[in-house]
Structures are given as structure tokens and as C-alpha cells.
What we know:
alpha+beta, Nucleotidyltransferase, domain 5, 8-stranded mixed β-sheet
Amino acid sequence: xxxxxxxxxxxxxxxxxxxxxxxxxxxxxxxxxxxxxxxxxxxxxxxxxxxxxxxxxxxxxxxxxxxxxxxxxxxxxxxxxxxxxxxxxxxxxxxxxxxxxxxxxxxxxxxxxxxxxxxxxxxxxxxxxxxxxxxxxxxxxxxxxxxxxxxxxxxxxxxxxxxxxxxxxxxxxxxxxxxxxxxxxxxxxxxxxxxxxxxxxxxxxxxxxxxxxxxxxxxxxxxxxxxxxxxxxxxxxxxxxxxxxxxxxxxxxxxxxxxxxxxxxxxxxxxxxxxxxxxxxxxxxxxxxxxxxxxxxxxxxxxxxxxxxxxxxxxxxxxxxxxxxxxxxxxxxxxxxxxxxxxxxxxxxxxxxxxxxxxxxxxxxxxxxxxxxxxxxxxxxxxxxxxxxxxxxxxxxxxxxxxxxxxxxxxxxxxxxxxxxxxxxxxxxxxxxxxxxxxxxxxxxxxxxxxxxxxxxxxxxxxxxxxxxxxxxxxxxxxxxxxxxxxxxxxxxxxxxxxxxxxxxxxxxxxxxxxxxxxxxxxxxxxxxxxxxxxxxxxxxxxxxxxxxxxxxxxxxxxxxxxxxxxxxxxxxxxxxxxxxxxxxxxxxxxxxxxxxxxxxxxxxxxxxxxxxxxxxxxxxxxxxxxx
Length: 628
């Protein structure tokens, strides 16, 4: 990430809006999540002078490799989102915010015959109903107290009706704030009506109460009862603060939903060679009613005007590959085959999935926030995307022009790796649109060739790969637009021979090397085609070649290490997997096992005298045979 993420440049692009920032280290792990009234001012502070900074902040800032952020409409939203993200990702530098009790909920125990209303620090899956979390605990307590006064809801923890009549009514009954259900002074049906009114209040229907309190405040003020008027004023403010609809948390349910929005940009502006458009799709993940994270996806757009079709294309591709399908999708616009996509997603989930296009209210504002973040990502990363487009799509176009091919979208390269013909393996790497497609990589263990014969080994690998293509085997059915061979004329002729015998038509080019084993051009149609070494096309060919080498060597190294362990321990009669693992744990290396005496081997875990003797004799006899 650090190779393409320039912190100084990215700091200049930070917006001045409120939001949440997410710090990553070089391994892409989230190490800190914070909120800000102004993202630009707050994030920049981490990378300025260390004066007046705590050691923890200095240490954290030194480990930041890159950062991202989510823009919100208010500091309140940023506050709640910060809490959700910290709980989800547990960053190591957010030690003071890891407690699950960061923000309070309002809880109504609807499962009880005489429900109570209280503060809760965790939302559980029970018969109760929850509202929140809320950023101000004091306002929550004030509102609960108000609800108890207005609707005469009990505050005690007595088990009712089991303990009804056993104790005297409490003080709240005597001051007129409770109807004493503990004494049976109110029927459960009448008490439930009061609870329903309180629930209606919590769901946002606060206008009647606010109007009543406002009238009382004005009356008290006119009669010069200023302390009483101030009390009404504070109560009204508490109600407004708690009843404010938060876009970050869905307070009326605990649904799982994804919110998807789109931003489109024309990248060819300022660079005519990039005749294409880029788009960013932003997905917000709401789980259990809380926004816990987001992801953005870059798309190459063929028809930027049909955004509904583009959105539908993303949905089908994304949810075809993800294991989790939410109960609800919220989109900024309708898609062409709305009902069909709903049915398809419902089938994948195993229950009903609905697609909504909110037009007003909280849900519409949440979709709008996703769209704004998508546009922010697109604007921020425009230059980076242009560079990426040049090194991928631009490089592919250069190769197409160089070889006069109509399309080189999919390129495959092969390599052979062995040491003196031992454990010969072949590798197949695939690049699509200039990027590695690792899901299509394949490994081949050479079966028919004995000794270090790279040509014969390559012929075997190519024959197996393209025979499977003709058979329609999974993972091999798609043919490349260009086959790149790690060598010149000889390797190309081998590939052309295999393709000719299988009656397949795939262009083949060889990567010709200079005296320093560096690619200097391509061998194509019987002639060497020179390449400008500073061009993006040349750099892409080099990356493909290096990747084929790496993948083959990695597989060969794996087989070689397995072979070494096998030859050293698995051939000893009576030493199975359990004893082999125990010996390696105890002695760490094969050499240490070989040099150990009989007593040391006998006292190793899982060993006995007979097994120790077999190990000692194996290595002792082997050493004697080597000397003789």
C-alpha cells in the first residue's frame, strides 16, 4: 500500500466535513479509529510536530502506512459510527474505547407483564426492545425519568406478578409517579396502554409532549417562575437530543442490510489514450441495526449513462461471490430487473430479500451518505486510478498495438522449475486486463519427463492445460488471448506444436532475453519485436514473467521441503506422524535429531527405547554407508 499511498498528498485531499478516520499499518491492519469535526484538521495533526503529543500518539502515528475515512453529516453520527467500528475491529490503539458499554441504550422489557424502562449498556437478543445507542448518557437518563413521570411506569426490579402484595408500595407511588402495579392497584391491560404510549414516544412521536412542555415553559416564564421554566427547557432539550433520528443506527429494528451507492467519473479527461470511464460503488454494511463498516469497489464502465444497469451488474457479480446475503438492500436508484434480482437474492439467502429505493427520511439520508462517500473516494483516487489504468489497461493496449492483435485482455504465461531434474514443476499464471487473476493460477507436477529437460516439461504442461480446455474442464475452459512463453524461438515452437496438434488457435509470443537474462523484446511470428523498456507494456510483460517465475519456484520449494522431511523421518519403520512431529518439536531440526544420542532420543515425547533405537540406527547406518 505504501508504494502507491503518499500520505502528504492524501492529507491535502482530506475534506473539512465531520467523519471517522481509520488508520492502517503496513500489513493493512486497522490500528486506530477516531472521529473528527473536521477530518482535514484532525488527521493532519497526527503527522505534524510531536510537540505536546503523548507517547502513545507518537508511537501510533509512526506505524501508520495509510488511512481511509468515512464522511458523515454531523459529529453525532461520527461519534456513533466510531463506536461501531471500534467494537467491530478492536484496533490496538483504541484501548480506552474497547468497552462494550461506551454508549447507552434505552430498554423496555416488553416480555414482562408489567414492563419497565431502563438504561442498558448492551443490546441482547431477548424479548425486550431497545433504542440507541445514544451518545449522551445524561440525556438518556433524563428522558427515562421523564417517561416514568409522564406514563407512570415503574422503576423497581420486583418480579411481578409473583411478588405482588408482599411489600409496601415505594415512594414513587406516594408522590404520584407510579400506579403501584406491585400492589395490584392497576390492571396489566391498563398498564400496558401506558407502556405503548411510551414506546410511541421513543419511536419519534414526541410532538405532543414537546408542545405540552413548551406551553408550560412559556406559562412559567410569563409568571416569572424562571427556575421551573428552565427545568421545562432542559427537559425539552433532552427529548430532542434522544429522539433525534440517527442515520448511523437503525433504532427500530436489528435488521441486516447493505446500502449501495454509485459514483461515476470519466478518466479519459486529460489522457486521451484511456478511452474509458471509472466508477466507484460504495457499500455500507449494517448488521444488527448498526453500521459496522464499508467497502468500495472500482468498476470499469462501458455505458456510464445507464447507471441503473451498472448498479444491477455490480449487485449480481458481488452477491454471486459473497457468502452472506443481507435481508435488505437500499439503493439510490431502481434497477432494470428489480423483481428478478430480488427473487435471485432471496433464493441465495434462503428467505425473503427486499430491495428498497428510499425517497425520504432516515433511510434516504443514509443512502445519500453512501453516495457522498463514493464520490469522495472517486475524487480522491482519480490520479491514482489514472496511473493504475495506464499500467494495466494502457499496458494491454500497447501490447495489442505492438503485436497487431485485436484483444489481449487475458494473457497466460508458463514456467518450469527444477534442480537437476528433481521435483520438476510447471506454473501457469493468468493476467486479465493487466492484473493478476490468482484464482485461475494452476500448478503442474511433471509426470512424464525424467531429468532436466525444460522443453519436454513445457510440452507436457501445455498439452495437459489445453487438452483440458478442449474437454471443458473447470478452470481451464477459457482460452487466453495471448500465450507468453518464458523464452524465445524454442519455447514458442513447442507451444505452437501443442496448439497445432490440438487444433487450437491462440497467438504465442516468446519473451526474448539479453545477455543479462533480462527481457529485451518479444519473439512473434518468426521475428523479434523490440519493445521500449520504459513503456508500460514492457513493464507489464516483466511483471508477468516475474510472477510465473515466483509461482513455479514457490511450488518447487514446497515439494522440495516435503521431500526433505519425508526422506529424513518418514522412511524409518515405526516412526509415524505423531512421533515425527514430537521429534521435530523436541529437537527443532533434522540435523539435531541425527546428532542426538540414544538416551536423548528415548526421553523425547512419544518415544520409547525401541523407537529411539530405530531412529538412531537409521541415521548411524546412513552415515556409515556414506563414508563407505
